[in-house]
Amino acid sequence: ICSYYIIPVVRGSADYSSIAPPHSYINVEDFKTPEELANYLIYLDKNDTAYMEYFSWKKDHILMNRFGWLNHATSFCSLCHKLHSDKREKIYYNLTEWFLREAQCNKDLNRHTIPSSS
Question: What are its E.C. numbers (predicted)?
Answer without folding.
Answer: 2.4.1.-
